[in-house]
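In this section we walk through a basic example: taking a raw amino acid sequence and producing a predicted 3D structure, encoded as discrete structure tokens. The instruction is simple. Fold the sequence below.
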Amino acid sequence: MFVNGIRKILYAVSNLISIVCYLVRFKKRSYVCKNLRIISGDSTGDSAKIKNVFIAFGKNHVDFFLSPLFNKAWVGRNVEFVGLDEVDEVLKKPSGAIFAAAHIGNWEMGCMVMALLGYPVYTVFWKHKSSLVNGYFKKRRTQKGIKGIPLDRHVGAACIRALVDHNILAVAVDRNYGEEGESVSFFGTPVSLPRGAAVLALKTRVPIIPTFCIRKRDDSFLFKCCTPRYYDKEQIHTENQVRYVMSDYIKIIEENVREYQGQWSMFHDVFKKP
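The resulting token sequence is shown next.
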């Protein structure tokens, strides 16, 4: 109760800041509008839904700031789980699992929830230009037991080690952060998306589990683990196996982005022509 009381107070502040950002950040607002138009098919754009994207993103920052106050008991009271039993079945085998996440709901909270429950979690992160910002994010994650893998030239080998050692590897698959991407159809538009999850799944034969931590109306969370998807490169009879794997799990990403589009925190032009 104490933690959620603080959350409500800080949410009120972040909501005001988010609305100001919605009003003055014209370019960001136009990107969100375009993205939502494409995924929803609404040519006019829904101003309320666009505003909700800004507000949801602000709440995510509040939760990340307050994360030192979260514990296993708080998770038990504030997180509803779907599909976690299937994750447990996967981890009974001598291998890890790849959590394919998107920037909907609170993806950082998803990693923290799993770590607080005692699961071994690694996450691939993009380095910010500021060392202070990097230090802030690193401290918040490591406090909860999350191990970070920086997105650099060693990322592939580090991810394979994490999976071979029977860990969960969480990666965001709906935005390309400088990684060499693969062009796949995303909401009917060719988009360059990161290929790392698909490459790792084919190399290690661990499953990809599309996973989402969705914010509910009362600011509790729904943690969704979809059915694990296994890919055997010996059985994929196509020249571009990576694109085949990506196209398969991207369908699940599309379904959830469309369902929770008011929480899709994308403030750049996702669908711009390469």
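Looking at the output, two observations stand out. The CA atoms of residues 83 and 225 lie 5 Å apart. Strands lie at 79-82, 97-101, 121-125, 147-150, 168-172, 181-186, 189-194, 208-215, 221-225. In the next section we compare this with other chains.
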